[in-house]
Amino acid sequence: MQLSIIIVNFNVKFFLEQCLSSVTRASKHIDVEIFVVDNNSTDGSKEFFEGRFDNVKFTWNEVNLGFGKANNLALKQAIGEYILFLNPDTILPEDCLDKSLSFFQNQHDAGAIGIRMIDGTGRFLKESKRSFPSLSTAFYKLSGLAALFPGSAVFARYYLGQLDPHRNHVVDVLAGAFMMVPQKVLGITGGFDERFFMYGEDVDLSYRIQRAGFKNFYFAESTIIHFKGESTKRGSLNYVRLFYGAMGLFVQKHYISGFGRFYTLLIRVAIWTGATISALGHRISRLFRYRNEVPTTMNSLIVADKKEFDFIESVLQNYKGGPKIIGRVSPNYLVEEEAIGNLHQLTLLLRKHAIKEIIFGMDGITAKETIGLLQGLPGDIHSRFHFAGTFSIVGSDQKELRR
Predict the structure, then answer these.
(1) Could you read off the pLDDT of 4-47 as tens digits, one per residue?
(2) Helices and strands: H and E segment counts in the chain
(3) Which residues contact 84 (CB under 8 A, 6 or more apart)?
(4) Helices 96-106, 13-26: crossing angle, 10 deg rounding
(5) Which of 49, 63, 90, 308 could form a disulfide with 304 if both were Cys (CB 3.0 to 4.6 A apart)?
């Protein structure tokens, strides 16, 4: 078995459905096993997937075990030479897994690899590569210096802003949204520390892999979409509590030495200061947004063949307050009679019709091509996805308004 893929689900059945469709495509030429561990979802996930995705081994927990413990549950059953820990709110291009496995064959000191990630607007996600938390990185981040000097090796060190995101690099921390680790390395380091309920597990495992003498690589030769935070709304008080609490646990676990207790105290103060600022900022932004925003219907294009266009349109017609569909764009560069344009004309169509959203029907276009297109579009264009044979359309914009 070449690869074992482990996905933990919690109340994101539609994202998981699209993720599994992309994983199925990406693993077409790989000897792979796929595990989904559900942490007692209340959104009907179990019924939704009953009798579907025969290539997936589902585990339905009766309680929420947390991210690390749920991953470890599947890890005990996994027999792959490599293990991929993958978030359910991701979409993989077709050559992603092949390229990742090939990298390990050529980089024998690699203990784990993470990957270049973008969100649903094509924006690069800085957390794709990070350094370990420290007093200085916390100060630069909280003081705003990191934002003022995003390419600085000093001030932007937490997100390693000095490193070109389009090149491979040895880094400290890999994101748990996509983290591939050889089984033999996990045999030395162990899996996730189950004291981390949600967030921070990837930082801790990255640290232990590095301490064991291996290198963590940021892999830029493939790019995935990560919608981010669908299980926990980013910026919510619950997110702040979980994320900053996890960072505090990491510091307490690994930074106790010499004057480390004082050092740890300072870092924890910085972390919780950040938590307070984040929570207050979130509340203030929500207050102004809800007072000033006037809901509008977005103009949308559907990139799909005729059959899939009809299906997507029928789904959206049943959704109250759904987007205004301007028309169909051919998922190739041909001129089709029933389409208002093709991929070559996409940028022109966006301007002409004031488009704010593109819905991609993935039956007529590859995920790799779609990811490439997203990165060339204006930053205010949101995207949604539908794989043939699925019953959902997923995407992300403002998390409070997502559908």
Answers:
(1) 999 999 999 999 999 999 999 999 999 999 999 999 999 999 99
(2) 13, 15
(3) 3, 4, 5, 6, 97, 100, 178, 179, 180
(4) 60
(5) 308
